[in-house]
Specification:
globular, mainly alpha, Arc Repressor Mutant, subunit A, three-stranded antiparallel β-sheet, 232 residues
């Protein structure tokens, strides 16, 4: 196993060990280093990061709650696979939540957080093919919009989609890196429409933003030609 960032190099971050272990495993899952359908062993992570098994076990339980893994008795941590049907269900839910957010923002003239533009600026600064950083910021951008409604229950619901949303986005960008520029334009157009409280335009951009990507959906377990859709 290749460890991208040794624990010793992260000490300056000042985060608790369990947080660093959690972040490391989660990142490796999102990057596809720990592939869907494979097992990740406590001992493997413990040895690679130079920590005891306790923070690894804590990280595993958190990742299971977030649906990155399934903990199987006497077998270890199984990295979950996103299926075509699960993806279709996920994005149906995402359309409902984000569409509702658009409607309220535009009809109630809700002022958007300045951080939304700052997030897009940070995305523009990313060089090369670091899809992980882009995907993290993409999720933050959309979550910040939902959070602007001030509905904590809705925000928590949207947050719970994060694991699936991020894994699918990583696969979409890996399959078609050319999407990066298109996504960049869509984000700017989307933010402009929201700021103008133009519900029709914002919904049109969102629909385009969430259009199916055949090159990704066709590679997911359970895919049937002409069946479930997938979005970025």
């Amino acid at each position: 196993m290749n460890v991208m960032t040794p624990l010793a190099a992260q000490e300056a971050e000042g985060r608790p060990v369990r947080e660093r272990v959690y972040a490391y495993i989660r990142e490796q899952i999102l990057r596809g280093v720990f592939a869907g359908g494979s097992f990740v062993e406590e001992e493997e992570i413990s040895s690679a990061m130079g920590v005891s098994r306790t923070p690894v076990r804590e990280a595993f339980h958190r990742l299971e709650a977030e649906r990155f893994i399934d903990l199987l008795p006497r077998r270890g941590a199984l990295v979950r696979q996103v299926t075509a049907q699960e993806l279709a269900d996920l994005y149906e839910t995402r359309r409902m939540i984000e569409g509702y957010a658009i409607a309220r923002i535009c009809r109630e003239t809700i002022v958007l957080p300045a951080s939304m533009e700052a997030i897009l600026d940070r995305m523009d600064e990313i060089a090369g093919g670091d899809h992980f950083a882009r995907v993290e910021l993409n999720r933050e951008f959309h979550f910040t919009m939902v959070q602007a409604l001030g509905n904590e229950v809705l925000s928590e619901l949207y947050q719970s989609l994060g694991a699936r949303q991020q894994r699918v986005a990583m696969r979409a960008l890996a399959a078609d890196p050319g999407r990066i520029e298109r996504i960049r334009r869509e984000h700017r157009d989307f933010l402009a429409a929201l700021r103008a409280h133009d519900e029709t335009s914002a919904r049109a951009v969102l629909d385009e933003h969430l259009r199916p990507v055949a090159g990704v959906i066709s590679r997911l377990p359970g895919y049937v030609l002409g069946g479930a859709d997938e979005e970025a």
